[in-house]
């Protein structure tokens, strides 16, 4: 049994692409569990795109990994020594144990894997782990896929996308993946059973037009960048987009200009366009509610009155330049 614990520490914060120079190896004696704790020998470590964010100290939804600390990551492993009543030697467990060979964890922070279920341990880091659960939330709760929807997912051969497409297909959608290269696109259709898969390294716009001739109802966004730019104009009326991640942009420093939509993911923002004409009942509701507020003096308004119909063109031009102050009307 290895008595030392090899750990990978974050040495410096990458600008752009992370590489070995940003990490440091450290060997320590194997840790010893105390009461309530469990000693775990790690078997598999999950590597996930979110880790790029943990290497940066830019504001985000989670704190960065401190310089000199063990990199964060989920592991599955085996209990070697237990001082917690919920675990026995030999149990298979999952937990956020970091980039290292061993760890001690309080039993309350570990999840026991089912016994002898025929599922490989590593699958609890992927298809049945965080990425698979992400796919499930995105498809069922955020996109609320309906039978007949045209559902598109980027990074379709990846951990999240591969599961998202399969869930959507089971929910009755026509599923189109986007992936990089012939080998991945073939895998997505032939192994995963998607209806189609297009290669973002080719002419993505034309390929999407061919695969989604009536447009896209649901887009599961994993990538951002040019893939996102190709998908957006092909969304149908009342389409839905689940912003899961934008891996193509994680190494870009500074981030791409413009309204960077990664803020939607980090801050769990809801973004929805609407047209008042789709809400006919609201007219009556608002005239009752707003009318009452107005009459009791609780609703203020200001008007900017242009005099004479002949002045309407000039007044309208002014509206687009900010010359009006308040609701612009023309006194005819
Ligand atoms: N919101 C959440 O809670 C949550 C949870 C988990 C994951 N995520 C996000 O979900 C996304 C997918 O994660 P994953 O774990 O499933 O990763 P993954 O798909 O297993 O791996 C990343 C894939 O992204 C694609 N990619 C990378 N750079 C690209 C680029 N420049 N242009 C186009 N495609 C590129 C590559 O696939 P191709 O070669 O096919 O392009 C690559 O294999 C990531 O954005 C991640 O941050 C979010």
Topology record:
Elements: E1 4-10, E2 23-29, E3 37-45, H1 50-54, E4 75-82, E5 92-95, E6 102-106, E7 111-112, H2 130-142, E8 150-154, H3 159-170, E9 174-179, H4 182-191, E10 196-199, H5 204-211, E11 216-221, H6 225-231, E12 235-243, H7 262-266, H8 280-295, E13 303-307, H9 312-319, E14 327-331
Parallel strand pairs: 8-9, 8-11, 9-10, 11-12, 13-14
Antiparallel strand pairs: 1-2, 3-4, 3-6, 4-5, 5-7
Bound molecules: NADP nicotinamide-adenine-dinucleotide phosphate (NAP).
NADP nicotinamide-adenine-dinucleotide phosphate (NAP) binds near residues 48, 134, 179, 184 and 200.
Fold and architecture overview:
This protein is of the alpha/beta class and 332 residues long. The chain folds into three domains: 4-125, Quinone Oxidoreductase, Chain A, domain 1 (Alpha-Beta Complex); 130-273, 3-Layer(aba) Sandwich (Rossmann fold); 278-331, no CATH class. The protein has helices at 50-54, 130-142, 159-170, 182-191, 204-211, 225-231, 262-266, 280-295, 312-319; strands spanning 4-10, 23-29, 37-45, 75-82, 92-95, 102-106, 111-112, 150-154, 174-179, 196-199, 216-221, 235-243, 303-307, 327-331. Helix 4 (182-191) links the parallel strand 9 and strand 10 (196-199). The longest helix has 16 residues, at 280-295. The protein starts with a strand and ends with a strand. 28% of the residues are buried. The model has no long low-confidence stretch (mean pLDDT 95). Residues 48-50, 131, 134, 155, 157-161, 179-180, 184, 200, 222-223, 225, 227, 244-248, 265 line the site of NADP nicotinamide-adenine-dinucleotide phosphate.
């Amino acid at each position: 049994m290895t008595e030392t614990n090899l750990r990978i520490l974050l040495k410096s914060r990458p600008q752009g692409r992370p590489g070995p120079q940003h990490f440091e190896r450290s060997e320590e004696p194997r840790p010893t569990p105390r009461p309530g704790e469990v000693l775990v020998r790690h078997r598999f470590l999950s590597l996930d795109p979110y880790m790029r964010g943990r290497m940066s100290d830019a504001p985000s939804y989670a704190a960065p990994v401190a310089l000199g600390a063990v990199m964060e990551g989920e592991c599955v492993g085996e209990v070697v020594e237990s001082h917690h009543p919920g675990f026995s030697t030999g149990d298979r467990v999952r937990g956020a144990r970091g980039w290292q060979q061993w760890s001690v964890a309080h039993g309350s922070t570990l999840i026991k894997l089912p016994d002898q279920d025929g599922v490989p341990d590593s699958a609890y880091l992927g298809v049945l782990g965080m990425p698979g659960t992400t796919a499930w939330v995105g498809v069922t709760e955020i996109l609320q896929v309906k039978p007949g929807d045209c559902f598109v997912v980027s990074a379709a051969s990846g951990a999240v996308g591969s599961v998202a497409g399969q869930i959507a297909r089971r929910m009755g959608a026509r599923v189109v993946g986007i992936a990089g290269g012939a080998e991945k696109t073939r895998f997505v259709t032939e192994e995963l059973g998607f209806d189609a898969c297009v290669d973002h390294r080719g002419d993505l716009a034309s390929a999407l037009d061919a695969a989604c001739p009536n447009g896209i109802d649901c887009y599961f966004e994993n990538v951002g960048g040019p893939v996102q730019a190709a998908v957006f104009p092909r969304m149908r009326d009342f389409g839905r987009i689940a912003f899961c991640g934008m891996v193509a942009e994680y190494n870009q420093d500074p981030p791409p200009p413009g309204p960077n939509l990664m803020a939607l993911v980090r801050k769990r923002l809801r973004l929805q366009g609407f047209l008042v004409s789709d809400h006919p009942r609201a007219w009556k509701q608002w005239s009752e509610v707003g009318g009452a507020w107005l009459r009791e003096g609780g609703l203020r308004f200001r008007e900017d009155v242009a005099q004479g119909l002949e002045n309407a063109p000039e007044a309208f031009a002014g509206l687009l330049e900010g010359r009006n102050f308040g609701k612009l009307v023309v006194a005819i």
